[in-house]
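The instructor's notes for this session suggest beginning with a concrete chain rather than abstract definitions. Hand out the sequence below and ask the class to guess, before any prediction is shown, which regions might be ordered.
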Amino acid sequence: VGAAAACAVDECDLYGAACQAAEQACVDEDTTQDGGWFCVCFAPLQDQRAEGMPAACDLDECAVAVGGLTGAEKCGDGQTCEDAQQGTGDRGDFICTCTLPAMGSAVGERAACTHDECSDASVMQVCAAQEQECIDHDWSKTGDWQCR
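After discussion, reveal the predicted structure:
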């Protein structure tokens, strides 16, 4: 009696497009009050949210497990992992790079590393001692270098 009716307004109907544009979900936990709606990241970052605006949903795949393993674990020993694009929609774009002296890189998976055995000091010394040049015909194989 004598009180205004409480109208339910889901602010996500009004402002949710901002969350959707950022590839996030909109949540309005109390539709009887103005304010309090927020954008929330999708898994595995569902704990990250921001009131009244898109949340920071940066995902470093090298550090955070997506699909069971981190990118660094997928790259494995002898490789480095870098994820330059860390947005919510940027998945599977981490780069595995072979550590020197091996060469090679791959996007989203372990790199196939190749190695010029002639770049190893011990191999170069063998050929230099014979006053010859070292030649490694196939960098993907080990033990196939020759002195000429």
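Then share the key points. The chain has a mean pLDDT of 87. DSSP finds three helices and eight strands in the chain.
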